């Protein structure tokens, strides 16, 4: 069984949804970002994730993986679900391209706005970049339900999670195809399960 170390509504939600989609057995271990960062069995979380960020997954043999993009790829590769095309299939790299787009162009830009004392002009420039990224996402989803091919993948998972964080900061009316994608993804049973398990509305 895989153990997912998480904090609610963090980037660990990507791994959580992927696990729920995958059919793999998993259990959750809540890490208090602002507390002592201990696992449920009393270990220091820093022994698993040296910089203390979530997610991390721990396998039955004690092996640990961190970094959301890598965790997603691992889950996809060991799952029976078609969360990412196999090695050698060019669509695999298109999926990974979108995963890295979400983590660098959406997730990290949002994190920059959480730094105390961010200058107004920097924040405005950051938001201008984000709106361009959302326009790209919106155009890529025109007439489509998924980002790559016809199958829901880890690319869709990360795009969904990263977009959720921005939805109260931008006018989603400007991105109707992205909004449609968000609504459809939110109705997936695995997404509903993960959100409920994290206590997210």
TrEMBL record:
Residues 88-201 form the GST C-terminal domain. SUPFAM superfamilies: GST C-terminal domain-like, Thioredoxin-like. Residues 1-83 form the GST N-terminal domain. CDD domains: GST_C_Beta (cd03188), GST_N_Beta (cd03057). It holds the Pfam family GST_C. PROSITE patterns: GST_CTER (PS50405), GST_NTER (PS50404). This is Glutathione binding-like protein. It comes from Novosphingobium rhizovicinum.
